[in-house]
Design brief:
With about 750 residues, the protein is mostly helical. It has helices at about 1-15, 55-70, 80-95, 95-115, 115-120, 130-155, 155-160, 160-165, 170-185, 190-205, 215-225, 230-255, 260-280, 285-295, 300-315, 320-330, 335-355, 365-380, 385-400, 405-420, 430-445, 450-465, 470-485, 485-515, 545-565, 595-600, 610-620, 625-635, 680-710, 715-725, 730-745, and strands at about 575-585, 590-595, 610, 640-645, 655-660, 670, 710-715, 745-750, 755-760. It is elongated, with a radius of gyration of 52 Å.
Length: about 750
């Protein structure tokens, strides 16, 4: 019965494994009863592992030990390497791995221990120097590495199975490193001599000698691989570096000038970085470079700047300044220190430009040149650092305002010089560039009202005497001032231009009017009608005009007031000019002269010679003005009058006659007009007018504040005034204006608290 069941099972198994032709398994539901048609599947156990010969392990180890010994002694190996590898694999397969590992380690350890003797017995006083010692050490290390690699290649199976599975065991390579470290490099005397030798070689290289860099790279790589680099070498190396560069910094700061010293520091840093790339460990770079920067720069920052910054800036040493910024940016506190000295230099140098009255003539041009120079340094050398640019602006603002009012006055005169006709040095683009630069300096000035007063006076002269080089340039400057200071600042200046344009229209109408007169005048009159509030105030001067001129003035007055009733005309002879037709022996000439010069010259139609007193009586010109006028006619380049006695100055007894022999290559001759040259009196009166205006502005500001606040303490009132006023003012001046307003009953003191003020409605 049991046999039949077994046969059924076989039949069923056979049916389950039957395949059709196309490879698909065919599942049959019927069991075949024919035993002959079934296939048998026999499953057998593995054969028993063959037993090793009794002495196989020992013999194999001896063979392996001989191979290891041959590698260590650099002799030929008797056996095939593949055979040795197979032998190791066989031993590992029979669980001999622990014993094999221990035996291998012991053989290697014995060999390394034997190596130490060549270094311990290395005589310190022998003829071989430290370099030979380093070479021997390097040779030993290289041999050890090569031997370890070969030994590992034979015992690779052991390394990748047994050792890998036991995390506590070091690999064969790590074992080799550990043995070399423990028995050779960790030996005190050997380690000291090795590190001493390496440091000596580095010091020689720093002193300019050539050393074997590959040797140093190999030995320092050895210390790094053996994980003793930091404690055995790096600490001592950094100490030696500190000592060397501390001494070098002190010595060279005394011996060399700053540009040379900076180049030396840059070279030293480059050398040390190169050292890191060539043979030092990468981890040494940061502390090493930090030490060099500290000893050569950090310890001498102030000394470098005090000794050399002004020299570099004065000489415009752009390359060295860029290097200085680059080096100081690497040192802690370097840039703030440089920034402070840079600011001090600008204040000092600029203070000399502004504070030396003898240099006033060139002050503005010197300021523009200085600003350009400092801009170039900030942009090109200081990496456009915002802090340095802001410090420069602060320094300029500080030193320019150390001397109140004068820079503002001179800037206005400089603009006048550039915008005046005859200035052919600049094209439109260059003029625009010059005006932009002037505006930069203008921004630094606190007393902008002083600039406005002088600018307005000079602009008036340019417009009235027809000396403006370009209307476009004038309007461009006006636009820049408006953008900078607001419409209120330029409203009067714009009004001046408007007056000039309206005057042109009026003159076209006046010419038509005179042509329709029954007796047209032979003289041609051009009048500029000026709105009194827009223009500078001129002192009225009564002069004796020829009857023809007086008559023509009356005709114009009648014409103008007929069109504009209710207006009042006041003539300003100081601003007049004329063209005179003159006849000399050489021929006819035209003289372009001022009205005062015209009155003097017309007298010589009536007589041949006159004294100063006679001319003064006949013309009515004020004495100082008359002397300047006579000087321009008799002592200048175009001497149309003769003076006797000769001399540059006009004295009371001088007499004048017409110079009939006058010669000149031009037909129309311009005799320098005195009103184009500012007198000291004009300058003083302009300044006084500015101060007077300031007093009115202070009074108005005080009343405005008190009217709004009703009651206010002195300190708060002064603080409010400083916020509102746009010009610099001293506390003492404010106090005087407050006292003046109290006297005029605009405000009163509190009876109990004198520092408290009340507004009086």
């Amino acid at each position: 019965m049991a046999e039949d069941i077994r046969q059924d099972k076989k039949a069923n198994f056979s049916a389950l494994t039957e395949h059709n032709n196309n490879g698909v398994t065919k599942i049959s539901g019927l069991a075949s009863n024919k035993t002959g048609a079934s296939k048998k599947l026999v499953i057998k156990n593995f054969k028993d592992r063959p037993k090793l010969a009794d002495n196989y392990t020992e013999d194999t180890w001896l063979k392996l030990r001989d191979a290891v010994g041959a590698i260590q002694n650099s002799t030929s190996i008797k056996y095939n390497l593949e055979e040795l590898y197979q032998a190791v694999e066989n031993l590992c397969s029979y669980k001999v791995s622990p014993t094999l590992y221990k035996q291998l380690r012991q053989v290697c350890e014995d060999h390394v221990q034997a190596q130490i003797h060549q270094f311990r017995e290395y005589p310190l006083h022998c003829s071989l120097d430290s370099l030979s010692f380093l070479k021997r050490m390097n040779r030993c290390w290289q041999d050890h590495c090569r031997q370890t690699i070969m030994i590992r290649s034979i015992f690779l199976f052991l390394d990748r199975t047994y050792v890998l599975q036991n995390s506590l065991l070091p690999s064969i390579w790590d074992t080799g490193l550990e043995l070399f470290r423990n028995h050779i490099v960790s030996d005190g005397a050997v380690q000291k001599r090795t590190v001493d030798g390496i440091l000596e070689q580095i010091e020689r290289e720093r002193n300019g000698e050539t050393v074997d860099r590959s040797l140093l790279r190999s030995l320092l790589g050895m210390l790094s691989d053996l994980q003793v680099y930091k404690e055995s070498f790096e600490e001592r190396f950094l100490m030696e570096t500190d000592r060397l560069y501390a001494a070098e910094g002190q010595r060279l700061m005394q011996e060399r000038d700053v540009p040379e010293y900076l180049h030396h520091v840059a070279r030293r840093l480059e050398e040390e970085n190169d050292r890191v790339i060539s043979y030092l460990d990468q981890s040494t770079q940061k502390p090493l470079i930090s030490n060099v920067e500290k000893q050569l720069l950090g310890e001498h920052m102030t000394a470098i700047l005090q000794k050399g910054l002004s020299i570099l800036l004065d000489g415009n040493r752009v390359m060295e300044l860029a290097l200085l910024y680059q080096l100081f940016s690497k040192v802690k506190g370097g840039l703030p220190t440089l920034l402070q000295h840079w600011r001090d230099y600008i204040k000092s140098f600029g203070g000399e430009i502004v504070g030396t009255p003898e240099k006033d003539k060139d002050m503005v041009q010197d300021l523009l040149d200085f600003k350009d120079k400092m801009d170039n340094v900030a942009q090109g050398c200081f990496n456009r650092n915002e802090s340095f640019i802001n410090a420069m602006k602060e320094a300029f603002e500080a030193f320019i305002n150390n001397r109140p009012n004068k820079p503002a006055e001179l800037i206005a005169k400089y603009v006048d010089c550039k915008l005046r006709a005859g200035n052919k040095e600049a094209t439109e683009e260059e003029m625009e560039r010059i005006l932009d630069k002037i505006m930069i300096i203008f921004r630094f000035i606190h007393g902008k009202d002083v600039f406005e007063a002088f600018y307005k006076k000079d602009l008036a002269k340019r417009l009235l005497v027809g000396k403006s080089a370009s209307v476009d340039a004038e309007k461009s400057m006006l636009s820049k001032l408006k953008h900078e200071c607001g419409a209120a600042f330029t409203s009067k200046l714009e009004g001046m231009f408007k007056d000039m344009e309206l005057s042109k229209d009026v003159m076209i109408q006046f010419k038509q009017y005179t042509q329709n007169q029954s007796e047209p005048s032979q003289l041609e009159l051009t009048v500029n009608i000026l709105t009194m509030g827009y223009w500078p105030s001129y002192t009225p001067m009564e002069v004796h005009l020829p009857p023809e001129m007086v008559k023509l003035q009356e005709v114009f007055k009648l014409f103008y007031l007929g069109k504009h009733s209710g207006r009042k005309l006041q003539w300003q002879p100081t601003l007049g000019h004329a063209v005179l037709k003159t006849e000399f022996k050489e021929g006819k000439k035209e003289l372009q002269v001022s009205l005062f010069q015209t009155l003097v010259l017309l007298m010589f139609n009536e007589g041949e010679e006159f004294s100063v007193e006679e001319i003064k009586s006949a013309t009515g010109i004020e004495e100082g003005e008359l002397r300047r006028t006579l000087q321009s006619l008799a002592c200048g380049k175009a001497r149309v009058l003769n003076k006797s006695p000769r001399g540059k100055d006009i004295e009371d007894g001088d007499r004048f006659n017409f110079n009939n022999d006058f010669r000149h290559k031009l037909f129309r001759i311009k005799i320098n007009q005195i009103q184009m040259k500012e007198t000291v009196e004009e300058q003083v009166s302009t300044t006084e007018r500015v101060f007077q205006d300031r007093q009115y502005q202070i009074d108005a500001a005080v009343v405005r504040i008190m009217k709004m606040r009703k009651t206010l303490g002195h300190n708060l009132l002064v603080s409010e005034l400083y916020n509102q006023l746009k010009f610099p003012v001293k506390p003492g001046d404010l106090k005087k204006r407050i006292e003046s307003l109290i006297d005029r009953d605009y405000m009163e003191r509190d009876k109990e608290s004198p520092n408290q003020y009340h507004y009086v409605a």
